[in-house]
Amino acid sequence: MSDVEQTPVYAQLTAISNAVVALHKHQFGRGPTRARTHWAGRDALVCIMEDALLPAERALVAMGESDRVQESRMFFQTASAPAFIKAVVDITGRSVRSFASATDPEAEIVTEIYIFHPQVDGH
């Protein structure tokens, strides 16, 4: 294990990736096979999940119906946003100001972006 993989930040990011994948699995019956989470500055977090589509969604993409996949995913993510936000708040201890989820059906990638309220103490 590298020094980076032993840091508290790496452990936190791994915990977030695992939590978000578990929520996807619970919501869709199958989770992405690859996920990684990165800080994007002090107050933003990006979670990238690959191989995220269901077999039926892949069939829709093959039929040229990517828009239907994006639309259905948008509704599911909106309905379950509180659970995704809670998971990240529980792990980071930070208050989420904004949450957005996007699906790129052709690439089979789901991206979730969390924007946090700035920390008062500057840390």
Question: What's the rounded overall pLDDT mean?
Answer: 92
Strand order of the largest sheet: 1-2-4-3
- The figure for the number of domains is 1
Most strands sheet:
4 strands, antiparallel
How would you summarize what this structure contains?
This protein has 123 residues and is α+β, with helices and mostly antiparallel strands. 46% of the residues lie in helices and 24% in strands. The radius of gyration is 15 Å and the shape is elongated.
What distinguishing features does this structure have?
123 residues; alpha+beta; 4-stranded antiparallel beta sheet; 4 strands
Structural features, described:
The chain has one domain. It is 46% helix and 24% strand. The chain contains three helices and four strands. A hairpin with a 4-residue loop joins strand 3 and strand 4. By secondary structure, it is α+β, with helices and mostly antiparallel strands. It is elongated. The longest helix is centred in the middle third of the chain and has 27 residues.
